[in-house]
């Protein structure tokens, strides 16, 4: 007996030592990796290692565990992290929890896996590394938009049983007001409003939303969804052509975590607390999918908001936590039925625009004549139309281009082939700079600035051979639609140079993120629409639309076409169906040959003027007049493609090549 007891003691002692060791290790890890400082004296606040969302701990389970020791003031579970914070009403309660939970084994409810908790005191419940994860632009969560009393009344107002319009879908119950939503085509029959309109009980709530500015127009369609635990809704974008921009959704009954996904794969998970309002507008409404999983989640990644504020930091509302068990969630989604086609700036996901694209989208050119026509329609005409607006977005010269121009000896004769609004013509007064551009309107703008410029095509520049000391061609050659034509433009630059003269060439890169080099543009990802539109210009595109993955897979580079010259040219293959895809701003390129939209601001179009390449007569007449969308043809270059082309020109050598802000660049020297 005695032996056994002493062995037992030893065991307990060993166990305690082990716990202590692991607890200290947890402390160090928290400090080192997360900047969380554990302290030795008792406070109201604890950090619990291994009880994080990243471990598979659910909020519900952890709450039940920590509530046993007192009133939980705050429970903070940072997304993907292997720890959580809990704040008790008193230090005594925190101490009780500390003693009971440190080293405690817990079985994860969702997985049946056993984990051991290690607990430490912290000064405050605050995730020190709480870098606000950027939310999908245009998304807002407003917490406690309705009171529990209003929630109850709203829920009671739905008569699930007697209504005929009620539908039970695979994963949820649904009821429509205002207009029936048809799941066959994911649209509404706009000519058949349902009798009765929206329930009166929603009026007050909608007034509030209007007054607070969450929505601009009063919704006329309501979908009530009811999800039992374990049910969900697959990722989707609400049909553009069916509803206007802002979509608001009220979460009642139970919180859920909704996943928002950008087409490039970037996912943001956001908790929609009970009684909160989700506002989806702009990019978050048009471009990102939303949904939540039907199978039990591995873990809930929670990103909640501070009361009444835009979601930014990670905190958790403490309100009715004890009620936030997995229950039935009912959502009230209010939308405004759209009366004219969608005119958004996300054509790749816009059904309004895709329908029309099929008819009007040009094909990839298969002959010289087709190529010339394509450029005429989708480059020359467009620049004529957008010249003024385009020019207004092009002021800051790029440093490395300026550097090139400043390095030239005094008195050098320099041709800027494709000079646009003449942004580089005044850079160095010691040079004789002459510009040319295919767009008369842009050349006129140069003239207004007092620069020397004339109209011509970059394939045949009316300047005598060998008389330029230097040439620049900034964001021009990517507008030629065949490899031969791009090569001809490079040859023309070479022809202009005297022996020893140099040419600087910039073209758009397929790779919009290179060697982990992130552009200013990428960092400004949540910037305004204006920024975004400015950035889609030619010469000065401050590094386009880059998200990590996907840019390489469709690039056509893998088959070596880009690097090794083939008899037919070094060009990558045209897109499969030969229709040129329309690029969506701020997404990676999925094709080397594509159309890039230009959203003209404050339309300067005069009545009766030809619309040129104005596509997608979408939106109301007025909005079409004011904000027409133009498409410019681009061939974006793969790594090595520009150099390979230059190497086929006999009389020059590639002196230098580099990547600059989403462009491939070379300096050629005439031999
Ligand atoms: Mn939806
Ligand atoms: Zn749209």
Architecture overview:
With 671 residues, this protein is α+β, with helices and mostly antiparallel strands. It has three domains: 2-122, RRM (RNA recognition motif) domain (Alpha-Beta Plaits); 139-339, Jelly Rolls; 354-670, Rossmann fold, CATH 3.40.50. 25% of the residues lie in helices and 24% in strands. Mean pLDDT is 78; it is low at 128-132, 294-326, 520-576 and 604-625. Zinc ion (ZN) binds at residues 240, 286, 342, 344, 346, 350, 352.
How would the blueprint of this fold be written?
Layout: H1 2-34, E1 38-39, E2 45-49, H2 59-67, E3 72-76, E4 83-88, H3 91-101, E5 105-107, E6 114-116, E7 118-122, E8 139-142, H4 148-157, E9 167-168, E10 173-177, E11 179-182, E12 187-193, H5 203-212, E13 221-227, E14 233-236, E15 247-252, E16 256-261, E17 267-272, E18 276-280, H6 282-286, E19 289-292, E20 329-335, H7 351-360, H8 368-392, H9 399-406, E21 413-417, E22 432-437, H10 440-448, E23 453-455, E24 468-474, H11 483-496, E25 497-508, H12 520-523, H13 529-534, E26 593-599, H14 621-626, E27 629-635, H15 641-647, E28 652-660, E29 663-670
Parallel strand pairs: 21-22, 21-24, 22-23, 24-25
Antiparallel strand pairs: 1-7, 2-4, 2-7, 3-4, 5-6, 8-18, 9-10, 10-13, 11-12, 13-20, 14-19, 15-18, 15-20, 16-17, 16-19, 25-29, 26-27, 28-29
Zinc ion binds next to loops.
């Amino acid at each position: 007996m005695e032996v056994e007891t002493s062995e037992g003691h030893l065991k307990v002692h060993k166990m305690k030592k082990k716990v202590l060791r692991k607890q200290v290790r947890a402390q160090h890890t928290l400090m080192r990796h997360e900047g969380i400082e554990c302290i030795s004296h008792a406070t109201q606040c604890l950090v619990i290692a291994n009880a994080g969302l990243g471990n598979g701990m659910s909020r519900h389970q952890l709450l039940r565990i920590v509530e046993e020791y007192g009133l939980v003031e705050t429970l903070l579970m940072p997304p993907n992290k292997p720890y959580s914070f809990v704040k008790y009403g008193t230090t005594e309660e925190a101490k009780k929890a500390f003693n009971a939970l440190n080293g405690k084994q817990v079985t994860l409810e969702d997985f049946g896996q056993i984990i051991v908790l290690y607990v430490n005191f912290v000064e405050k419940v605050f995730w020190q590394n709480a870098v606000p994860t950027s939310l999908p632009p245009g998304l807002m969560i407003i917490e406690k938009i309705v009171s529990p009393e209003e929630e109850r009344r709203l829920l009671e107002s739905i008569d699930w049983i007697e209504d005929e319009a009620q539908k039970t879908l695979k994963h949820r119950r649904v009821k429509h007001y205002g207009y029936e939503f048809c799941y066959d085509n994911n649209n509404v029959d706009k000519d058949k409003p349902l009798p009765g309109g929206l329930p009166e009980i929603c009026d007050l709530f909608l007034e509030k939303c209007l007054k607070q500015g969450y929505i601009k127009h009063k919704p006329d369609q309501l979908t009530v969804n009811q999800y039992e635990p374990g049910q969900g809704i697959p990722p989707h974008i609400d049909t553009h052509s069916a509803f206007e921009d802002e979509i608001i959704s009220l979460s009642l009954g139970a919180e859920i975590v909704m996943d928002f996904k950008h087409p490039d794969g970037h996912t943001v998970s956001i908790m929609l607390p009970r009684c909160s309002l989700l506002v989806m507008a702009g990019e978050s409404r048009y471009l990102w999918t939303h949904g939540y999983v039907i199978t039990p989640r591995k873990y809930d990644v929670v990103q909640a908001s501070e009361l009444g504020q835009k979601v930014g930091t990670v905190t958790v509302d403490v309100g009715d936590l004890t009620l936030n068990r997995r229950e039935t969630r009912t959502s009230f989604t209010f939308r405004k039925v759209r009366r004219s086609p969608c005119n958004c700036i996300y054509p790749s996901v816009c059904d309004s625009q895709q329908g029309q694209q099929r008819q009007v989208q040009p094909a990839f050119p298969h002959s010289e004549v087709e190529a010339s026509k394509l450029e005429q329609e989708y480059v020359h005409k467009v620049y004529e139309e957008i010249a003024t607006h385009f020019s207004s977005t092009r002021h800051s010269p790029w440093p490395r281009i300026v550097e090139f121009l400043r390095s030239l000896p005094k008195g050098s004769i320099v041709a800027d082939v494709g000079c646009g609004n003449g942004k580089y013509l005044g850079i160095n007064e010691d040079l004789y700079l002459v510009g040319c551009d295919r767009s008369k309107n842009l050349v006129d703008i140069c003239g207004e600035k007092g620069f020397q410029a004339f109209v011509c095509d970059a394939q045949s520049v009316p300047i005598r051979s060998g008389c330029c000391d230097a040439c620049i061609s900034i964001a021009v050659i990517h507008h030629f639609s065949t490899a031969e034509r791009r090569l001809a433009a490079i040859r023309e630059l070479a022809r202009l140079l005297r022996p020893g003269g140099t040419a600087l060439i910039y073209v758009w890169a397929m790779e919009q993120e290179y060697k982990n080099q992130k552009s200013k543009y990428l960092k400004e990802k949540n910037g305004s629409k204006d920024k975004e539109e400015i950035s889609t210009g030619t010469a000065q595109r401050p590094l386009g639309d880059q998200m990590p993955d996907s840019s390489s897979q469709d690039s056509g580079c893998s088959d070596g076409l880009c690097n090794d010259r083939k008899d037919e040219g070094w060009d990558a293959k045209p897109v499969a169906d030969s229709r040129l895809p329309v690029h969506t701003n701020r997404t990676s390129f999925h094709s080397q040959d594509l159309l890039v939209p230009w959203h003209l601001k404050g339309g300067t179009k005069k009545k009766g003027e030809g619309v040129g390449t104005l596509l997608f007569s979408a939106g109301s007449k007025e909005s079409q007049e004011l904000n027409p969308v133009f498409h410019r043809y681009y061939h974006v270059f793969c790594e090595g493609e520009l150099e390979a082309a230059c190497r086929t020109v006999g009389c020059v050598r590639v002196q230098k090549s580099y990547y600059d802000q989403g462009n491939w660049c070379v300096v050629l020297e005439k031999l």
